[in-house]
Amino acid sequence: MSERQAKRLAxxxxxxxxxRNGVVRTSETxxxxxxxxxxxxxxxxxxxxxxxxxxxxxxxxxxxxxDHPELEGRATSGYDFIDNDSDAxxxxxxxxxxxxxxxxxxxxxxxxxxxxxxxxxxCGGSGSWDQVIAAVDWVTENAPEAxxxxxxxxxxxxxxxxxxxxxxxxxxxxxxxxxxxxxxxACEVSPASAPGVLTVxxxxxxxxxxxxxxxxxxxxxxxxxFAPGSNVTSITQDGKTAAWNGTSMATPHVAGxxxxxxxxxxxxxxxxxxxxxxxxxxTNVISDPMDSPNRLLYVDDLGARDPGAPLxxxxxxxxxxxxxxxxxxxxxxxxxxxxxxxxxxxxxxTTGTGVKPSHKYSKNGTYTVKLTVTDNSGKTATTSRRALxxxxxxxxxxxxxxxxxxxxxxxxASSDPNDDIVSYAWDFGDGKTAAGVKTGHTYPSGPQSIVYxxKLTVTDxxxxxxxxxxxxxxxxxxxxxxxxxxxx
Length: 488
What we know:
16% helix; seven-stranded parallel β-sheet; globular; serine-type endopeptidase activity; PKD/Chitinase_dom; PKD repeat protein; 3 domains; 31% strand; five-stranded antiparallel β-sheet; 7 helices; alpha+beta; protease; serine protease; Immunoglobulin-like; Rossmann fold
């Protein structure tokens, strides 16, 4: 009605008041809301640069509830490596929740992406590494050119798993993987430690690294960025919705972001997709990142790049024995012209120019190298990646199991970039030591409970060392001692 009519109606003694009509809308889930804006507070909206059309996302998980109305028929079955058949339906809910964050119509980052379920986790949410490896290989063999993979799962570091994922990346599949929920170094976990993937940590609605009771998001240099992973609402296998926690929930936000980029730029390489996602991320907003790169997923600029802007991309090749590296930016491109300059920052305070520069670092280490390209129109693009100069230190890792007072230690999960670990030194925390990849130890009996810190130090042929410790609690009695490994 008009303003005049409203005034006349308000004058009626039978009318208490007249109020202007308003618009009612649903509020976006906080995770979607967070990743399309740089800063808090949230604005209760989510606007994606595109809908992910033309891209297929492979969800390697517990399966998907294909008939959930939120998926609009866009999710199909790939293969079930639990039952060894073609029906990858979800009887747990985890995979459906993940798929919903990637591409459901209400809760998804990319609302028109096609999804394929590859089941590797059973109704209890567990599986085996051989099933995961087979699934990754299946995705590699069956994926179309525009393909994205999501693995919201993990376990102890596995060379076989990491190799399978690396081969998939090399074949052109872009993977987002979960960092893990044990509040420890993600480099001890697979596939989080696999090369060439986007490893995702979890953040909460106040931009803190997520913590859940005694658990929390894994951290460290293997984490590439954070995404919302606390109290994330998505769909479940029973046709409903639920709010769940974990890096499993953070990862599909990033997988969805990769879908957006791939949809906008068909044929883009995995390295360039990853670089674009990382370079676009919001920096220095996560509190307590615990030695992780301080990046938070940001999608507003993804899939909506200036069509005339160049694309910066490079590879690095470093010696395994000396801190000498060469860089190659020849894959950088410009859609409507030529690249006129290449400017490098080598991460040690020095700079360079040219398409294929070489650089000698003053010492071995990990450096963040940045490339900025400028095209003939003056438009620029920047990307960065790590360069491992010279022999890199090994990474110690071990497992421990105990029966009564006898504990068995296994350091075979330790790794070295050059595959040249030459010694394994054990300190059992009670004054005793041992050597070798695998060993055993009997803890002393006593009348009280004692916590021992067992440590493994691995050394490579360049005398680089790495040490890791785990706690073992031994409960004494007059008759017997029982030891229990403690998780931390």
